[in-house]
Amino acid sequence: IGLSDTDEAMENLIKVFYRYSGKEGDKYKLNKKEMRNMLQEELAEFLTGSNDSAVVENIMRDLDENKDGEVDFQEFVVLVAALTVACNDFFVDSMKRCPTSE
Amino acid sequence: IGLSDTDEAMENLIKVFYRYSGKEGDKYKLNKKEMRNMLQEELAEFLTGSNDSAVVENIMRDLDENKDGEVDFQEFVVLVAALTVACNDFFVDSMKRCPTSE
């Protein structure tokens, strides 16, 4: 039985999370340094560059629902889901503004 | 600039959605038939087989937050996020029960 594209996407997100969360401290959570590395290497195009530290700080605060100073997998998935929806909105907008595509 | 694994996962989810939503009716939403096809081809391992129609029916009802009988991209991402978190919980459980892995 092969993996579908959706299975692979899910598997990749799990792998990415542990690639960073496993570096130090709690292996199942991203601390601030791990989070910064993850954002810079995986989602650099969403960091607008103005002040990366402040951005990382804000994202951590927003995601860390249980306020333990670390981001667990469920909190990480919320970030990726939100970014994916934002990407999709951008994509749909472009499609709808392009009359030749129909 | 190359795509990171996270970028690819996000891109794959968007592609998968439109592969099914574009088949008929509103091209930006999954109707019940498109949803059934998507679930069977992409997430078959999560359909326990007992009664696929009932499962599809339930998933549609749960996801369709704005009650228009169709599932849009944002509602689809909620499903994939929930399944990914479930997969991850299973994965973490297995890891923690496996003393040799440390």
UniProtKB/TrEMBL annotation, chains A, B:
GO cellular component assignments: cytoplasm
Residues in EF-hand domain copies: 51-86
SUPFAM superfamilies per UniProt: EF-hand (SSF47473)
Organism annotation: Nothobranchius furzeri (Turquoise killifish)
A GO MF term: calcium-dependent protein binding
This protein's UniProt keywords: Calcium, Metal-binding, Repeat
Keyword Metal-binding: yes
Name of the protein: Protein S100
InterPro entries the record matches: EF-hand-dom_pair, EF_Hand_1_Ca_BS, EF_hand_dom, S100/CaBP7/8-like_CS, S100_Ca-bd_sub
PANTHER family referenced in this protein's UniProt entry, alphabetically: PROTEIN S100, S100 CALCIUM-BINDING PROTEIN
